[in-house]
């Protein structure tokens, strides 16, 4: 496993990869930062693409990804990856899109367990009434920042 800490507009991110794929992106506080510079092609590419995203030069990611989860979680994450840049949908809309209309809470829980936030854009899912609900726990300001970055009016 390889890890790297990178700065972003939403604090620091810890990127984790193996030799073949990006495995995890974690939000970390400044107190948790121990800057690491590890040479790994996947981490190099992930950091470059994330920086392009944050600077408004990239709308989609082209990275090899690996994540573990239940079949349902993977279905939700695939649904998230189909949400276009600059758009939002509700948890209910996402549940309907993946064919599990009554599983709104389960969609929310799968969203919460997303191992690759930003790349798998769980920030694009908002409350049915347009409210900024749950993101990285209670850190909805990160969701707002990412949606503003995508110039989304919500």
Structure in a nutshell:
The protein is 33% helix and 16% strand. It has helices spanning 41-54, 71-81, 91-97, 104-112, 140-149, and strands at 2-8, 11-17, 22-28, 89-90, 125-126. The longest helix has 14 residues, at 41-54.
Care to describe what's here?
This protein has 154 residues and is of the alpha+beta class. The chain folds into 2 domains: 2-54, Double Stranded RNA Binding Domain, CATH 3.30.160; 71-149, Orthogonal Bundle (Arc Repressor Mutant, subunit A). The chain is 33% helix and 16% strand. It has 5 helices and 5 strands. The chain has helices at 41-54, 71-81, 91-97, 104-112, 140-149; strands at residues 2-8, 11-17, 22-28, 89-90, 125-126. Strands 1-2-3 form a 3-stranded antiparallel β-sheet, with helices on one face. A two-stranded parallel sheet has the order 4-5. Strand 2 and strand 3 (22-28) form a beta hairpin. Helix 3 (91-97) packs across helix 4 (104-112). The longest helix is centred in the N-terminal third of the chain and has 14 residues, at 41-54. The mean pLDDT is 88.
């Amino acid at each position: 496993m390889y890890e790297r800490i990178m700065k972003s507009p939403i604090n620091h991110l810890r990127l984790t990869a193996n030799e073949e794929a990006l495995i995890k992106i974690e939000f970390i506080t400044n107190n948790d930062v121990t800057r690491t510079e590890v040479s790994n092609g996947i981490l190099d590419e992930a950091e470059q693409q994330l920086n392009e995203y944050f600077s408004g030069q990239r709308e989609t990611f082209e990275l090899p990804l690996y994540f573990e989860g239940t079949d349902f979680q993977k279905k939700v994450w695939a649904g998230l990856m189909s949400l276009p840049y600059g758009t939002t949908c509700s948890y209910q809309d996402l549940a309907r899109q993946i064919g599990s209309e009554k599983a709104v809470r389960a969609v929310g829980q799968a969203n919460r367990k997303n191992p690759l936030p930003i790349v798998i854009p769980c920030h694009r899912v908002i409350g049915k009434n347009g409210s900024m609900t749950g993101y990285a726990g209670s850190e909805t300001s990160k969701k707002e920042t990412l949606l503003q970055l995508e110039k989304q009016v919500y």
